[in-house]
Design brief:
Elements (H helix, E strand, L loop, with lengths): L4 H16 L3 H21 L2 H34 L2 H35 L6 H30 L4 E4 L4 E4 L2 H5 L2 H32 L3 H36 L1 H7 L12 E8 L4 E8 L2 H7 L9 H28 L5 H10 L3 H5 L13 H9 L5 H31 L6 H9 L3 H15 L4 E3 L3 E2 H4 L5 H32 L2 E2 L1 H16 L12 H7 L9 E2 L2
Antiparallel strand pairs: 1-2, 3-4, 5-6, 7-8
Helix pairs in contact: 1-3, 1-19, 2-3, 2-5, 2-7, 3-4, 3-19, 4-5, 5-7, 7-8, 7-16, 7-17, 8-15, 11-12, 11-14, 15-17, 20-21
InterPro entries: Cyt-d_ubiquinol_oxidase_su_1
GO biological process, one term: aerobic electron transport chain
Family: Belongs to the cytochrome ubiquinol oxidase subunit 1 family.
Length: 555
């Protein structure tokens, strides 16, 4: 990779974004799991569920703080490293990010404080409401960020204004209900739920292997397996929706993921394995499954999926139309608002292809001066790196199906084998803890790397989006980010491991009082019979408002 401004800016943003996403999926999933556990506590009154809520909530809090810190830093880069991008599409892209900050993040951050410091200040129901508001706030944050990202993948509800040289929003509704954004949202949050489920499953399995906190671990595995199974199934189903969306919004990305060089007769086969050769434009030793890609991509047996070569030819045509739009745009700019109506009409006719003319700026200063060779190079630039996309997608999908198998197995053992688990299964649950993060990072790699050479698909090339910085500035900030983020990662891992080893705290008096009340309910309904336990009166006293309890580590 050539160390120029564009590639260094991409590398820096990729590093910070993928590092930030180490925290996001666990935050999304744990917020829901913690709210579910507290719901059970409020419904049953059993202290073990409060203990579980506090323990997993502590791990959620550590992860949440690090996620916020890395997310804010990442957003600053839009102004630092991608200033022309911010100028060009800021009217559209900035709106969902602003809403995310004002609505979702403040909601989430405010109620996180109440969740951790409100246990003795709020009633059970009030604290439960706070827990669910934290979960809702976390997911709302993801929604607005993915709406912004979805617009970059499929820029609907906006038009280019030749007088201001910027993209301007024409329909906020279209931006919100963009099919790519909605598919990405449900797919991403479901992946987060799987991540948290695997994490809870693995940590609980470790406790069982160590014969520590057995009751908490068994119940946690039951919740994680049930929630994780539903989430893992939804990831696969919703991933199919993303594939269908890409078939008509990002055709080149889909063709590159499948290493589909030529257009197949419908329905197209799915290449299970192969070795893409981008230079020769063929896939060696390909093993194909008939019909599958056609069904996934088009949901029909008659519609074709265009191959890479046909899409390059289409890009060639769009570049030529874009040159016409660029010429009209320059005339409008020179006329300063007094350009003839026929020139504006010409621009409007070809404006959808203006971004393709910008691809030529990599080779010539004025697209109107481009040669046939320049146009051919620009058209070929619309092909992303096929081999990395091909394998990243297949590893991600393979892990997705593996999660279904893991969750199904533990769900079966929890439901029909009295929560007993063989040691090999518990060890496997611990080993696979990193796997959902690998799958999530690969998913983002496919989504973002597959969009190249565009920052905004078909509108703004990546090469035009960067700020005018020096190589030294970028190398210095990149080194600074790597150092700072490495320190944060060490702190995160240290805190998580510390509290996992430490384990949950048991509210001893509350637990003993609940056990006494429970035994009393089993023996007599009125508490006056000869079998009423001796601790009933003490238990009743603890039920009084303002009753205090001491907490110490669980044995």
């Amino acid at each position: 990779m050539e160390l120029d401004i564009v590639e260094l800016s991409r590398l820096q943003f990729a590093m910070t974004a993928m590092y930030h996403f180490l925290f996001v999926p666990l935050t999304l999933g744990l917020s829901i799991l913690v709210a579910i556990m507290e719901t059970v506590y409020v419904m049953t009154g059993r202290p073990i569920w409060r203990q579980m809520t506090k323990f997993w909530g502590t791990l959620f809090g550590i992860n949440f703080v690090l996620g916020v810190a890395t997310g804010i830093t990442m957003e600053f880069q839009f102004g630092m490293n991608w200033s022309y991008y911010s100028h060009y599409v800021g009217d559209v892209f900035g709106a969902p990010l602003a809403i995310e900050g004002l609505m979702a993040f403040f909601l989430e951050a405010t109620f996180v404080g109440l969740f951790f410091f409100g246990w003795d200040k709020l009633s059970r129901v009030q604290h439960l409401v706070v827990a669910w508001l934290v979960a809702i706030g976390s997911n709302f944050s993801a929604l607005w960020i993915l709406i912004a990202n979805g617009w970059m993948q499929n820029p609907v509800g906006a038009e280019f204004n030749p007088d201001t040289m910027r993209m301007e929003m024409t329909s906020f509704t279209e931006v919100i209900f963009n099919e790519v954004a909605q598919a990405k949202f449900v797919h991403t949050v479901s992946a987060g739920y799987v991540t948290a489920s695997v994490f809870v499953l693995g940590v609980s399995a470790w406790y069982l292997l160590k014969n520590r906190h057995v009751e908490l671990a068994r119940r946690s595995i039951t919740v994680a397996a049930s929630f994780g199974l539903a989430s893992a199934l939804s990831v696969v189903v919703l991933g199919d929706e993303s594939g269908y969306s890409a078939s008509h919004t990002q055709k080149m990305k889909l063709a590159a993921i499948e290493a589909m060089w030529e257009t197949h007769d419908a329905p197209a086969p799915f290449t299970a394995i192969g070795f893409p050769d981008q230079e020769a434009r063929e896939t060696h030793y390909a093993i194909e499954i008939p019909w599958v890609m056609g069904l996934i991509g088009t949901r029909s047996l008659t519609q074709e999926i265009p191959g890479i070569n046909d899409l390059v030819a289409e890009a060639d045509t769009r570049i030529r139309n874009g040159i016409i739009a660029y010429d009209a745009l320059m005339t409008i700019r020179e006329g300063q608002g007094t350009a003839p109506d026929d020139v504006r009409a010409t621009f409007e006719q070809h404006s959808d292809d203006l971004g393709f003319a910008f691809l030529l700026l990599r080779y010539v200063d004025d697209p109107r001066m481009a040669s046939e060779a320049d146009i051919t190079k620009a058209a070929n630039d619309t092909i992303p790196g096929v081999a990395p996309l091909f394998w990243a997608f297949r590893i991600m999908v393979g892990l997705g199906f593996a999660f279904i198998g893991v969750m199904l197995y533990f769900f079966w053992r929890s439901s029909f084998r009295r929560q007993t688990y063989p040691c090999w299964a518990l060890r496997a649950a611990v080993i696979i803890i990193p796997a959902p993060w690998i799958a999530a990072e690969l998913g983002w790699f496919v989504a973002e790397f597959g969009r190249q050479p565009w920052t905004v698909d078909g509108v703004l090339p990546t090469a035009l989006s960067v700020s005018h910085l020096s190589i030294q500035d970028l190398l210095l900030t990149l080194a600074g980010f790597i150092t700072f983020y490495t320190i944060l990662f060490i702190i995160e891992m240290g805190l998580m491991l510390k509290y996992i080893r430490k384990g949950p705290f048991q509210d001893v008096e509350e637990t003993e009082a609940w056990e006494a009340r429970h035994e009393h309910r089993l023996r007599t309904h009125d508490g006056q019979g000869p079998f009423a336990p001796a601790g009933v009166q003490a238990a009743s006293a603890l039920d009084e408002p303002g009753a205090a309890f001491n907490a110490k580590p669980a044995e």
